[in-house]
Write a structure and sequence with these properties.
This protein is an alpha+beta fold and 935 residues long. It is built from 15 helices and 57 strands. The strands form eleven sheets. Strands 1, 2, 3, 4, 5, 12, 14, 15, 18 and 31 form a ten-stranded mixed β-sheet that branches. Strands 33-32-30-27-21-20-19-35-34 form a nine-stranded parallel β-sheet. An eight-stranded mixed β-sheet has the order 36-37-38-43-40-41-53-54. Strand 10 and strand 11 form a beta hairpin. Helix 5 runs antiparallel to helix 6, helix 6 crosses helix 8 and helix 10 runs parallel beside helix 11. The longest helix has 18 residues. The N terminus is likely disordered. Belongs to the glycosyl hydrolase 31 family. It comes from Urochloa decumbens. Keywords: Glycoprotein, Glycosidase, Hydrolase, Signal. This is Alpha-glucosidase.
Length: 935
């Protein structure tokens, strides 16, 4: 018997709730939400000849009006495009709908629409298998699923929810196991770390909203996720891409994931993995391999919005040199421009003759210079860039006129990079500017596109715009009114834009504006930065004949094939320091491995910056893209400002510059296979489930782990170590031996000026001496660090290095222009040690005089070595190449540490060093010796 409160009002409310629940369970609901859609049924399905896939026709089961009428007939297309990839596309059967242009993102075309009349063999089987993935479906209601052929594991299954397809609203859901670990769906700043959290918002729509905003759609649109599951102790991954440039909300509930998209079509690509590395290989093989970066791009970069004149820039370069802190690239934000106008120079603060003399000086040293350009072109009849753009009619339009917006120079028009004339105009303007200033790369910013105003605007007649000497130039000074009379500016379904269900056109281009051939901004909005990056890449590649370097803020699927990325406007706080890791790791999954955050923070924060900047340069020294950048309101934060930060910078960047050959080789591997430079731990250890959510550490490549301090006042760090042996690269006698331990952390000392960086067992790590500029560092002799499991009796290790002429646009092995070397090492019986190399196309490194001066082998036991023998290209080293006096030396005592603390019974020897070498990198060698073990 039910007993309620003595309060009559509370009893009434509880009884009402009970009755409503009972009524709902019997199908009687007093105020149910209107049904969005009732789904579709499959009325025909045929198989196209010659492996062309399946084509089916779907028919709406029952019309609804919520968010607009259902499209009555849909075309289903399914094709196993490669052994590891299946595509499932659903679109209007009778009318061409917007999709990502094939000239921007080349891919296999879907069959043309034929109004549902498709010839082929009727397909009646219950499933459509490929080599690795199988497509299954139901007919009434229509649903589809994808599973692995080998294990029958379901990857995606829409049977739990109705398919909804309207002109401006598409909805589809998939069921998920509750233990699936999901990653991706960005760009956004994720306070919970890299692993997606159920019920956090994931809105995908390119937006200029500072990266300090959490769980909010930011600068990039990447509707792809990776799903990692532990099955029988083995980590198995797959990925799902919804190739659609329209705005969308993605609702992840833990056991389901629902897409709500405001246009375009449903164009799914499923990638089978089964490893995380295989995923990015498969994904980038479709969207485009990451662009190769020049060697100098892996050096350290310095920028500030507020270098008001050239003398300040010269002083910054001198400051770095005097402090002996590495610096490769100096940047200008818009300070170099005349009144913030693209492709111009301020004649007073950056006079061209003095700037050219400065560039001659730093170029002679090997340094580089990069400047910012924004897409907004100032509306100014005396401005040649504007005049030429108007003459070629290349600006985005609203109501037949160029769309007026406001950015830093004041009133601007936006070039249309979907217009071939817009692209050719842009290429010409980049050429003209390069003739003016021989920059080494370009930084394209504000390209979401960002607009300080909203709606339809006109130049005011009652006041100036921009307002002279304004302290708030980002405040709209145009006369504007919201556009509310079109379904593009006010769609029936409102995505959670800017984290606050803002208008789609809020602080950007009005979504009813049009591009080339009548393409709506509503559809193409999130492609703007992507299309600008492609145009800029064409401009630099054709102009310089060198490998382009482009840094872009706004990105889309495929942007990594053209540009690097930084994580946008962050803040100088400990929280933002931590958030930077997850965003960086996400972009590796997105196919943009050259990524980093503004070191020390872009926006100023209250309190002292010194300790934070110490810790941030220690972390940022190991971002793939490493740049200090602040805004004009921030205190000066160049790394030499504080002696303590300078010391941290020399330490951390000193290690980075020693690791440049490793980082550059990762760049080569990324270009070949998409493999991220910076990776989550689960990329190398997918079977080790405790690392699935780790967002405070990361790997460089497969074998170097960075464990930064992320908390104020901390002098130690709690780090997770996957099973195996890890050697501290700053002091290789510090060794962590992890048994896995269920993910139990290890407490590491981390004084203010130190960061923990470890190399994993079974690795041969190529390093050089380092330096304060990459041009000099890359010419120094190599050291090979060979890491065996601690005390190993039988073990193998391997590694590789790629060197080339990074002026070449292409990054590929070619005789005389590049060398690739594989390294192998082994220990047998705890005594016999072999280290050898296999060289491909060695003439380039021979011509550069690159040599190996030292081999350091970690993890061996013994008191020394004997019987050292070295052969180069099969001949005895004494006759094959001149060397110094090769010698064997034994390292000091190991300091062992694991989950249980420090092992006081550390073994005596941890390393053997073979020094005094001058082995040509371009010739294969074999080195052997035996360990001496005294009784």
């Amino acid at each position: 018997m039910l007993s309620f409160s003595r309060s009559p009002i509370l009893s009434y409310l509880l009884w009402s709730l009970l009755l409503l629940t009972l009524a709902s369970s019997n199908g009687v609901v007093a105020t149910a939400k209107p049904k969005v859609g009732f789904g579709y049924k499959l009325v025909s399905l045929v198989q196209l000849p010659n492996g062309g896939g399946l084509v089916g026709c779907l028919q709406a089961k029952q019309p609804t009006s919520t968010y607009g009428p259902d499209i009555p007939r849909l075309r289903l297309f399914v094709k196993h495009e490669r052994r590891e990839r299946v595509r499932v596309q659903i679109t209007d059967a009778d009318k061409q709908r917007w999709e990502v242009p094939y000239n921007l993102l080349p891919r296999e075309p879907a069959p043309p629409l034929t109004g549902g009349k498709v010839t082929g063999v009727p397909f009646t089987a219950g499933e459509y298998p490929g080599e690795e993935l199988v497509f299954t479906y139901g007919r009434d209601p229509f649903w589809f699923a994808v599973h692995r052929r080998s294990t029958r594991q379901t990857l995606f299954n829409t049977s739990a929810g109705a398919l909804v397809f309207k002109d401006q609203y598409l909805e589809v859901s998939t069921a998920l196991p509750k233990d699936a670990a999901l990653y991706g769906l960005g760009e956004n700043t994720q306070p919970g770390g890299i692993r997606l959290r159920p019920n956090d918002p994931y809105t995908i729509y390119t937006t200029d909203i500072s990266a300090i905003n959490l769980n909010t759609d930011l600068y990039g649109s990447h509707p792809v996720y990776m799903d990692l599951r532990s099955l029988g102790g083995r980590g198995v991954a797959h990925a799902v891409l919804l190739l659609n440039s329209n705005g969308m909300d993605v609702f992840y509930r833990g056991t389901s994931l629902t897409y709500k998209v405001i246009g375009g079509l449903l164009d799914f690509y499923f990638f089978s993995g089964p490893t995380p590395l295989a995923i990015v290989d498969q994904y980038t093989s479709m969207i485009g391999r990451p662009a190769p970066m020049p060697y100098w791009a892996f050096g350290f970069h310095q920028c500030r919005w507020g270098y008001q004149n050239l003398s300040v820039v010269e002083g910054v370069v001198e400051g770095y040199r005097n402090a002996q802190i590495p610096l490769d690239v100096i940047w200008n934000d818009d300070d170099h421009m005349d009144a913030a106008k693209d492709f111009t120079l301020d004649p007073v603060n950056y006079p061209r003759p003095k700037l050219l003399a400065f560039l001659d000086k730093i170029h002679a040293q090997g340094m580089k210079y990069i400047v910012l350009i924004d897409p907004g072109i100032a509306v100014n009849n005396s401005y040649g860039v504007y005049q030429r753009g108007m003459a070629r009619d290349i600006f985005i339009k609203l109501d037949g006129q160029p769309y007026l917006a406001q950015v830093w120079p004041g009133p601007v028009y936006f070039p249309d990079f979907l217009n071939p004339n817009g692209v050719s105009w842009w290429i010409d303007e980049v050429r003209r500017f390069h003739d003016l200033v021989p920059v080494d790369g370009l930084w394209i910013d504000m390209n979401e596109a960002s607009n300080f105003c909203t709606g339809k605007c006109t130049i005011p007649k009652t006041h100036q715009c921009p307002i002279p000497d304004s302290k708030t130039p980002w405040v709209c000074c145009l006369d504007c009114k919201n556009i509310t009379n079109t379904r593009w500016d006010e769609p029936p379904y409102k995505i959670n834009a800017s984290g606050q269900t803002a208008r789609l056109g809020f602080n950007t281009i009005a979504t009813s504006a049009t591009h080339y051939n009548g393409i709506l901004e509503y559809n193409a909005h999130s492609l703007y930065g992507f299309s600008q990056a492609i145009a800029t890449h064409k401009a630099l590649q054709g102009l310089q004949g060198k490998r382009p370097f482009i840094l872009t803020r706004s990105t889309f699927v495929g942007s990594g094939a053209y540009a690097a990325h930084w994580t946008g406007d962050n803040k100088g706080t400990w929280e933002n320091l931590r958030y930077s890791i997850s965003t960086m790791l996400n972009f590796g999954i997105f196919g943009m491995p050259m990524v980093g955050a503004d070191i020390c923070g872009f926006y100023p924060a209250a309190g002292s910056l010194e300790e934070l900047c110490n810790r941030w340069i220690e972390l940022g020294a190991f971002y793939p893209f490493s740049r200090d950048h602040a805004n004009f309101a921030s205190p000066r934060q160049e790394l030499y400002v504080w002696e303590s930060v300078a010391k941290s910078a020399r330490n951390a960047l000193g290690m980075r510059y020693k690791l440049l050959p490793y980082l550059y080789t990762l760049n080569y591997q990324a270009h070949l296979t998409g493999a991220p430079v910076a990776r989550p731990l689960f990329f190398s250890f997918p079977d080790f489930t405790p690392c699935y959510g780790v967002s405070t550490q990361f790997l460089l490549g497969s074998s170097v782990m960075v464990s930064p301090v992320l908390e104020e006042g901390a002098t130690s760090v709690s780090a997770m170590f996957p099973p195996g042996t890890w050697y501290n690269l700053f002091d290789t006698t510090k060794v962590v031996v992890s048994k896995g331990g269920g993910g139990a952390p290890v407490r590491l000392d981390a004084p203010l000026n130190e960061i923990n960086v470890h190399v994993y067992q079974n690795t041969v790590l190529p390093m050089q001496r380092g330096g304060v500029i990459s041009k000099d560092a890359r010419a120094t002799p190599f050291t090979l660090v060979v890491a065996f499991p601690y005390g190993a009796m039988e073990a193998d290790a391997e590694g590789a290095v790629y060197v080339d002429d990074d002026e070449r646009p292409e990054m590929a092995l070619a005789e005389g222009q590049a060398t690739f070397v594989r390294f192998h090492a082994s220990v047998r019986g705890g005594k016999a040690v072999t280290v050898r190399s296999e060289v491909m196309m060695g003439s380039f490194s021979m011509s550069k005089g690159l040599v190996i001066e030292k081999v350091s082998v970690l993890g061996l036991e013994g008191t020394g070595g004997k019987d050292l023998a070295i052969q180069v290209d099969g001949a005895d080293a004494a006759t094959a190449v001149a060397t110094s006096s090769p010698c064997l030396a034994v390292g000091g005592e190991a300091k062992l540490q694991g989950e249980d603390g420090v092992d006081e019974n550390s073994k005596r020897s941890v390393s053997v060093e073979v020094g005094g070498l001058a082995l040509p990198l371009g010739k294969s060698f074999t080195m052997t010796w035996n360990m001496r073990i005294d009784a």
